[in-house]
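Changelog entry

Holo records now carry the ligand SMILES as an explicit input line rather than a separate metadata file. Below, a converted record for flavin-adenine dinucleotide, shown in the new format.
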Amino acid sequence: MTDSTLVWFRNDLRLIDNPALIEASASKNPVNFIYIFDDTGKHSRPLGGAQKWWLHHSLSRLVEDISKRGGRLDLYHGDPEAIIPEIISDLRPTKMVWNRRYHPSDIACDSAIKANLEAGGVSVKTFNGTLIREPWTLTSKSGGAFKVFTPFWRAARENYPIPTPLPAPDRFIPALKPASKHSVSLEELALLPQNPNWAVEMGEAWVPGEVGAAATLNTFIEQGFAGYSENRNRPDMPSTSRLSPYLRFGEISINHVWQASDMAVQSGRTRASSEDLRVFQAELGWREFSYYLLYHQPDIAKFNVQRRFDAFPWQNDPSLLKAWQKGQTGYPIIDAGMRELWQTGFMHNRVRMIVASFLIKHLRIDWREGETWFWDTLLDADPASNPASWQWVAGSGADAAPFFRIFNPMLQGEKFDPNGEYVRHYVPEIARLSSKYIHTPWAASAVELASAGIKLGQTYPRPIVDHEAARNSALAAFKALT
Ligand SMILES: Cc1cc2nc3c(=O)[nH]c(=O)nc-3n(C[C@H](O)[C@H](O)[C@H](O)COP(=O)(O)OP(=O)(O)OC[C@H]3O[C@@H](n4cnc5c(N)ncnc54)[C@H](O)[C@@H]3O)c2cc1C
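Structure line, unchanged by the conversion:
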């Protein structure tokens, strides 16, 4: 039997700095590549609609990139535990490689597959292709799991040298066998939205895949990085990297982003300061911390990390929830954010915090409703960062913002979108309002509203809740809890 290797792609849809791939191509044996789209819900959380759109395009590019190098990526659909034995019996590889995952149910799935393969004489090698530090390598001084970000991040960075990303292999030795009879075409995965195709604007805003990731990193380093520590809070400026969907699907590695940001500052390629670098890399640290939390608290999307929040009196109000989802709350910064999300599959981080706070505290709707909506609509919806961030805003998470910190949507808008440009872009029906009232249309005079073409309650909603009253009842509900 000829030695051959099977590479299983998962959250690492790239050729550059992909340790499993490097291992496979270094052996000079023929290589088969597979991707399994698992929407069974048995292991990983099934992807939301926006992510499926992204995955379609990312896989399409990966198929092309592998084929240009002489290889072939075969696609499958279903439960990996059931499919892999079939692929193995068709392709008969002698070795299988993959980069590791971190949700305990994924780990259990991978461990069962590994044990099966090894029992059948197939050797298995797995790698870290996703994180700076894998969760099980870090414990606090007392030997337990970290619960607070700062000491976690200090420990994670210890002895982390500036990494050198591994180059993409030039050529692959083509697989000798045709695809397994169980493989499917990209179209058969049916990942794209049909009737209606709500992803048109996503296609204009994003280029999924490795080439898009590299271009996005480059643009950030040249245009957004200088001043990042201050400007990253400004949704009206192109000041953050927009790398999150690429990192989520592993189309660029964390080592690559880390090294590029470090080198850009060291070499003077950017005017970014060492503070910009520190703050940017700390954001990458929050991604690490989220994965650490996911590993230690696999049910983070389902249960409050702080169980006292189980008794919180959430409101069940579908019409308020719908107004929030559709960007029809009457609070311009909230509506702009929710519409940015719907149209582009992305929302600026500062605005994510404001809209999440509004849902949880002003509307007193369970954070899980918001998390689920984000899961379906965000291109970067991440099984770790999404629930961890929602619990952070709710105050129920690890090292979370206190519940009583309730964002004032008017002040947040005035501070971080001072001229209202972000609001004007996503809420065009109030675009002609002066900057003075762009975050508070209800405070404008009848004359001012009329000259901006606004009929409050008709062309744009009045606020669905009164800020002060909503704030007070949220605080009262929280007080009753403590
Ligand atoms: C309610 C809520 C939900 C969120 N859901 C997600 C999610 O599903 N997926 C996701 O990747 N991020 C999520 N975030 C974190 C953050 O908003 C996004 O990572 C960020 O907006 C992505 O934009 P960027 O790539 O331009 O970020 P940059 O500012 O350029 O940051 C660089 C990278 O660091 C990581 N990062 C930055 N901030 C955070 C953070 N607070 N937590 C974890 N990682 C971070 C991301 O990978 C990001 O691409 C959420 C935040 C909130 C408040």
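Spot-checked after migration. The chain has 20 helices and five strands. The chain has a mean pLDDT of 95.
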